[in-house]
Amino acid sequence: MTTQTNSVIVGTAGHIDHGKSALIEALTGTHPDRLAEEKRRGITIDLGFAFLEDDGVRFGFVDVPGHERFVSNMLAGAAGIDVVLLVIAADEAIKPQTREHFDICRMLGVKSGVMALTKSDLVDADSTELVRMEVEDFLRGSFLERAAIVPVSAKSGAGIAELKQALHAAAVLVPRRDAARYLRLPIDRAFAMKGFGTVVTGTLISGSIGAEDEVELFPGGTRLRVRGVQSGGKGVVRATAGQRTAVNLAGIEHGAIRRGMVLATAGRFRATRRIDARLELLPSAPRLKQRSRVHFHAGTSATVAEIYFYPERIEQKDPGNEALREGAGGVAGGRTGKGATLVQLRLQDDVLVLAGDRFIVRQFSPVITIGGGVVLDPLARRPLQRDSGRTGFLETLERGKPDEIVAAITERAFSGVTSSEIVARFGWTEAEVREASRQAASRGRLKIVSEEPLVLVAMAVFEETRKKIATKVESFRKENPLQAGIAREALRAALGRRVRPETFRAALAELVAQKKVEAQGDIVKPAGSEVTLLPEEARAKEQIAKAFGAAGLAVPAVKEVLGSLAVEPQRAEKLLRILLHEKQLVRVSPELIFHSEALRHLKEQLSTYRKGRGERISVPVFKELTGITRKYAIPLLEYLDREKVTRRAGDERVILQP
Fold first, then answer.
1. What is the pLDDT of residues 548-588, one digit of tens each?
2. Residue 285 DSSP SS3
3. Under 8 Å CB-to-CB from 431, ≥6 apart: which residues?
4. Looking at 78-211, which runs of residues are DSSP E strands?
5. Cα 403 to the chain's mean position, in Å?
6. Under a CB-based contact definition with an 8 Å cutoff, are residues 128 and 93 in contact?
7. Do the Cβ atoms of 138 and 94 come closer than 8 Å?
């Protein structure tokens, strides 16, 4: 029986020279240092990688630098790890970068890990036990409180088997990443390989990727084609979420790609420079003032951010939350769960992040890690002075169910939102967005005004649109009693640009279904309403119809007909529009209007001509047949072409209808 191999990313963490790289070599047989300077100096400067497939688990090891000068490189490697391998030398115990790396892993949401007490061959058993006790005390109350602590020696191999068992136990606790979601691959390396071209590597955090896929490179939005994919040093048909992945790309030079860029499913996401987030500051962090500048790290990207603190809603039932209140000078860091506050981060460069992504912030100068947090709204808008619902909205994004989140986003967008806007924020699939939307609609929070594409509008906005349509239709009727109704496009324009066409159509359709208005062709009117004419208006209307009817095809000028009436010109124009709407009269050109009976008779003439003399007719013959001049003949023939009664063929017309 074959079992599916589970892929787990293990990231090392710990102080410089505590034996991280040597330990990985002892576990995998591969030394992760790849740079000549790293081998010469004996320290890890940039990220290193190695792989181990053991007992149904494929471990991808990311070796990160321990030196404080290279913590930014460490952060790029920490993105996407499932299990932290916290390395502490038995002859030195816990050191500054041990603490910083541990804080980074905690704030990045790592939930599983193993402690390795390296260089255990250099100390006696009592010293090892003292270090173990110190480590247990350090980890007490943290996500690693129950993690295994394994003394090892990379030199002698002692404890390596036990460490592998501990890593297996930790791997069991790691939830599988979602390969059904859209692709995101934060890039940590880009290089050229002879015979292949551009290759990028990274930890696949969601979705899958295979040869011939079209992907989008962020920031920038360049569309690229995938030539091939490797995972664990081997070619694969598709790499899936949770795997270290190398992608061979066509259509771009490796020099155009840098660490921090992201490969993603094409057409689904948007880069951003404005993020709403929940920020937690470490107890050791200095007090931050409004608009403090910090170094921002998310995934493999790094940029500078300016912090804007939102005022917090203080819950009386939890006095500890007073630590969240913004003081005159800014926000101070508190202990876990107490120093977290809502912020907006304004970034110097475009990044691709989604709601739920974790990030780290480091002090601008001197550069030390001071906190981290979680993205709540990656496409945040500029804060308004009066926006009392902002914090409640962000709390819903943070803790709400999918249908509550969709409803909250829709209710804050007067024009409504599309499924693509929701996907760009959360990375949900279209099916997930539709299900959440249906649930929110069933609870009366929003209205689905279009299924393809999916467009949502808040129920309050939809009801307001319905009322406005009904009111404007009735008002137009009262102000224009001689007109059958308001033109559909004029009605939509009267609602303003903030009302989407989909919302207008859905609201109008509902009013029609409720028999509150009628929509006849291009005209919308109150249900059951008819044009009521005064006696002189009725006579004038009849005069207009008779004037055009008696003229046959040699019709008089419109101004001439209207000028002969006993009613004023404005009312005469409205009476003419009524006749056109009723289709008694037909406007063939801007200057020429014909009676419908005359046009019907003309079509009968052409049908008779076709049967007796053939399907082709020239302009002179058409003039002779109808007894009209060229002034009328050409506009009428063009009208017949539009009506598909005839088709122009050179200087002649082909009669299409028998």
1. 999 999 999 999 999 888 888 888 888 888 888 888 999 99
2. coil
3. none
4. 83-89, 112-118, 149-151, 184-186, 189-193, 197-203, 208-210
5. 17
6. no
7. yes
Question: How far apart are the C-alpha atoms of 345 and 309, rounded to whole Å?
Answer: 9
Tokens for 147?
Answer: 């993690």
- Cα distance between residue 369 and residue 362, in whole Å: 4
Q: What angle do CA 648, 649, 650 make, to 5 degrees?
A: 110
Q: Among 323, 333, 341, 425, which residue's Cα sits nearest to residue 391?
A: 341
Beta bridge partners of 486: 524
* 338-347: average pLDDT: 84
Phi, psi of 559 (to 5 degrees): -60, -35
Residue 621 contacts by C-beta under 8 Å, 6 or more apart in sequence? none
pLDDT at 506 over 70: yes
What's the pLDDT tens digit per position in 363-417? 998 888 899 999 999 999 887 766 778 889 999 999 999 999 999 999 999 899 9
Query: What pLDDT does residue 316 have?
Result: 34
User: How many residues would you count in the chain?
Assistant: 658
Mean pLDDT of all residues in the chain? 86
Put the strands of the sheet holding 646-649 in their side by side order.
616-618, 652-655, 646-649
Report DSSP letters for 471-502, one per residue.
HHHHHHHHH-TTSS-EEHHHHHHHT-TTS-HH
255 Cβ contact list (under 8 Å, min separation 6): none
Can you tell me the distance from the alpha carbon of 348 to that of 207, in angstroms, rounded to the nearest whole number?
28
Indicate the angle between helix axes 619-626 and 596-613, nearest 10 degrees: 120
Name the β-bridge partners of 246: 201, 230
Rounded to the nearest 10 degrees, how much is the dihedral formed by the CA atoms of 414, 416, 422, 425? -20
Find out whether 112 and 10 touch, Cβ atoms under 8 Å.
no
Looking at the DSSP bridge assignments, the partners of residue 360 are 297, 372
> What is d(CA 619, CA 403) in angstroms, rounded to the nearest whole number?
66
Residue 453, preceding bond cis, omega within 30 degrees? yes
Tell me the two tokens of residue 595: 């009676």
Quick one: pLDDT at residue 356? 93
| C-alpha R_g of the chain | 37
Number of C-beta neighbours around residue 228 at 10 A: 17
d(CA 208, CA 191) in angstroms, rounded, equals 21
Tokens 């009013």 belong to 511
300 close to 352: Cβ distance less than 8 angstroms: no
Lowest-confidence segment of 200-214, 424-438, 477-491 by average pLDDT: 477-491
Q: Which residues contact 647 (CB under 8 A, 6 or more apart)?
A: 641, 653, 654, 656
With a cut of 60, say whether residue 226 has pLDDT above it: yes
Whether 325 shows a pLDDT value over 70: the answer reads: no
Q: How far, in Å, CA of 520 to CA of 164, rounded?
A: 76
Report DSSP state, residue 179.
T
d(CA 264, CA 217): 7
Q: Show the 3-state SS of 564-616.
A: CCCCCHHHHHHHHHHHHHCCCEEECCCCCEEEHHHHHHHHHHHHHHHHHHCCE
DSSP state of 194: T
pLDDT at 339: 60
CA pair distance 393, 355, nearest whole angstrom: 13
* Strands 486-487 and 646-649, sheet pairing: unpaired
